[in-house]
Amino acid sequence: MKKIVGLLLIVWLLIGVVAAAQRGYLNDSTKDCASVATIAINVVAGPLNYVGVDPEVDECDVPNPDEDDLPQPSEDES
Asked: In whole angstroms, what separates CA 56 from the centre of its chain?
């Protein structure tokens, strides 16, 4: 049973890769957050891409912490 589920999962994801390639997402020269997220969501959507689902990410905001927000090492002088 585990082999069947694993095989179905692999086939599902491969169909998603094919759909993303057919839409030209893998040929896009700009690899920003939104394009990578669009590729990932198309791969996860798998065969749903062929029944009208067209997932696309327009904006992607990745937090960019300032250096002040990062934890500083302790200054223990023991």
From this structure: 11
Q: Which residue in this structure is represented by tokens 């491969």?
A: 14
11, amino acid identity? V
CB 16 within 8 A of CB 45: yes
**38 burial via Cβ count (<10 Å: 0-12, 13-18, 19+):** buried
Structure tokens belonging to residue 5: 């589920």
Check if the beta carbon of residue 53 is closer than 8 Å to that of residue 45.
Answer: yes
Mean pLDDT (whole number) for 2-17: 95
- Rounded percentage of the chain residues whose pLDDT exceeds 70: 79
Token reading at 59: 């904006």
| 75: amino acid identity, one letter | E
Question: Which two three-digit tokens encode residue 55?
Answer: 């997932």
